[in-house]
Write a structure and sequence with these properties.
Layout: E1 4-18, E2 22-33, E3 38-47, E4 50-59, H1 63-78, H2 80-83, H3 87-103, H4 105-114, E5 125-126, E6 128-134, E7 137-143, E8 147-152, E9 155-158, H5 168-176, E10 181-182, E11 185-186, E12 196-197, E13 219-224, E14 229-235, H6 245-256, H7 263-277, E15 291-298
Helix pairs in contact: 1-3, 1-4, 6-7
């Protein structure tokens, strides 16, 4: 059996919600893939003046993405830096905390509950792209190749960049850890240089967590939101395969038009975007992945 279904699964699971400063719609679709391995979080008004959204794109199985979806918010709320409103530090520590939890005996037991098969070992991981909005400041923490793009003055203001093994800094770290990059893949296998999980790449006791072949350490970008900021587009890499960031934002803006933005309208726009991005067949390889998208509209 290959990686694709004979016909795509176009069923969508869509969640909408609203907070004091945001309205959001999150939609996911399995598409052509045999299984669905994405997960996401949506928490407007998590605490006063703070909203958090995240996309977790699983690989090698759904279990790590599911685990992170379940635990990320709880661990963020426990974090002392989060309580002290030191959000960059809090996001970084919570990313690393996911790996710490996964490595515990209880974490391994829980991980096995989420697996699609009965094998003893899990070789799964997931990307993590998390946006935290505090008052008028947007923070985006990223590990992997899911993305956040801010629509600013009708054009794209990118809030993350992909972590790929052939980027020079990433490649240098991989080689220092005793690995190699071939065909854009770590040890010829994984096409990401940062991710949560993938614990088999993180077990060399000679190296610290940020020195391993694959690391969970996120890059974090922040910006002060302004009246020209309309919405944040978040998604797994499948969202960004076939259209440029500018084309994606233009499509969303056209669908939004000048209408009053509501949860129902954002739901329609998000689901329409998934339909547009889905490939008609699997011959090209793009538009065939699981797709998860979050549109976070910024109230004025």
């Amino acid at each position: 059996m290959g990686p694709y279904l004979s016909q795509p699964n176009k069923n969508k699971l869509t969640t909408t919600g609203e907070g004091i400063s945001v309205i959001f719609a999150a939609s996911e679709m399995q598409g052509w893939r045999n299984t669905m391995e994405d997960a996401h979080i949506n928490r407007p008004d998590l605490v006063q003046d703070v909203s958090v959204f995240g996309v977790f794109d699983g690989h090698g199985g759904k279990e790590v993405a599911t685990f992170v979806e379940k635990h990320f918010i709880d661990e963020l709320l426990k974090n002392q830096n989060f309580k002290n409103q030191k959000f960059e530090e809090a996001l970084k520590e919570t990313f690393l905390k996911m790996d710490e939890l996964l490595m515990t005996p209880n974490g391994q037991i829980e991980l096995n509950k989420y697996k699609a098969n009965d094998s003893d070992d899990s070789y799964a991981g997931c990307t993590a792209n998390v946006a935290l909005i505090h008052k008028n400041t947007l923070y985006v923490a990223n590990a992997g190749d899911s993305r956040s793009v801010l629509c600013r003055n009708n054009t794209n203001y990118d809030m993350s960049y992909d972590h790929k093994p052939d980027h020079q800094d990433e490649k240098s770290r991989i080689e220092r850890a005793g690995g190699f990059v071939r065909d854009g893949r770590v040890n010829g296998n994984l096409n990401l240089s940062r991710a949560l999980g993938d614990l088999e790449y993180k077990c060399d006791s000679k190296f610290k967590p940020h020195e391993q072949l694959i690391i969970a350490t996120p890059d974090i970008k922040q910006t002060i939101l302004c009246p020209q900021d309309q919405f944040i587009l978040m998604g797994c890499d499948g969202i960004f395969e076939t259209l440029t960031h500018d084309e994606l934002l233009n499509h969303i803006n056209q669908k939004l038009g000048s209408a009053l933005v509501t949860q129902e309208l954002l739901k329609e726009v998000a689901e329409d975007l998934l339909n547009k991005l889905l490939a008609p067949d699997t011959s090209q390889g793009t538009g065939c992945d699981n797709m998860s998208v979050i549109i976070v509209y910024l109230k004025k």
